[in-house]
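Sequence in, structure out. Go.
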Amino acid sequence: MPSIFSKIVSGEIPAYKIAEDDNFLAFLDVFPCAKGHTLVIPKKEVDYIFDLEDELYAGLMAFAKKIEPAIRQTIPCKRVGIAVIGLEVPHAHVHLIPMNSMADMNFNSKIKISPEELNEIAEAIRAKL
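Output:
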């Protein structure tokens, strides 16, 4: 059964897309730790990040690196943290989270953002790419 991320890739489920190419997709997390919390995924469904082929793994990190400056320029923060948890969705992905303190990377504390604001944030980040 396809993961929720594969359904986003195929267009079955909508997402607040930030950037996309043939192999990777970046979109806003709808259950974010902080405003601008972005997920970066390979389009190829592989459950565990360390099971990715070396080229795909390196490409995922390079794609995330391209997204980070746009997030940092859009969302006031000291840094954009990166996390790989890998338990919540069986599809390799990285979290890019704007942060001003370590507390901003708390996955047990989610914030609520309206669909309208998520759309505005996605548009603002895209404009910086």
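Check: Residues 54-74 form the longest helix (21 residues). The domain at 4-83+118-128 is CATH 3.30.428.10 (HIT family, subunit A).
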